[in-house]
Design goal:
The chain is mainly alpha-helical and 178 residues long. Helix content is 62%, strand content 5%. The longest helix is centred in the N-terminal third of the chain and has 19 residues. The radius of gyration is 23 Å and the shape is globular. The relative contact order is 0.13.
Length: 178
């Protein structure tokens, strides 16, 4: 508490500062266990970056750097494999038709569900939730502080470089804005 008085911290600043220091210590003990909490951590860390001249801003900067290093240390995601074989060259056998719509054999249904199963299996094996993190970061663009918005944008760029196929939400969001 004496330290807080020297730095002129209020109780509202002391609690987040203590939390950030604890999180920073967790990076030295068990960094992988923090991965599932990345979206929520970013919601708290990035706005604190705006207070760069205070110890709160410095602690937030340190946690932000540790978190980004953790994400960058993850194994690279495998590039998307070749698309599943399609029957576009072959004529699809018709089994019957109902009011002008053709009904095809069940083989097409199996080939259509195979990519979805592969994607869901990749998501289960990945300890880092790219989709939730990208969503969390895009919400940071609504923050009033420029430092927060810039940090969110830097995170989005990093994620896109790290795993472009997993951060495709970002690409579709940018394309919808143009």
């Amino acid at each position: 508490m004496v330290n807080a008085l020297r730095n002129k911290l209020t109780v509202d600043q002391l609690i987040p500062l203590t939390a950030l220091r604890w999180i920073d210590e967790l990076f030295s003990i068990c960094p992988e266990d923090l991965l599932p909490f990345t979206p929520r951590l970013l919601e708290k860390v990035l706005p604190s970056l705006a207070q760069s001249s205070t110890s709160l801003g410095q602690a937030a900067q340190k946690v932000n750097e540790n978190l980004s290093q953790l994400i960058m240390s993850l194994p690279n995601s495998s590039p998307p494999g070749p698309p599943p074989p399609t029957r576009s060259n072959a004529v699809t056998p018709r089994i019957g038709s109902v009011s002008g719509a053709s009904v095809t054999s069940g083989d097409d249904k199996e080939s259509a569900t195979a990519p979805k199963e592969t994607q869901s299996q990749e998501t289960l094996n990945d300890p880092f939730d790219y989709f939730a993190t990208v969503n969390s970061l895009t919400l940071q663009f609504l923050n009033e502080n420029e430092e927060t918005r810039v940090a969110a944008f830097e995170w989005l760029i990093m994620l896109h470089k790290k795993a472009p196929n997993k951060a495709s939400v970002l690409t579709s969001w940018i394309n919808s804005r143009s």
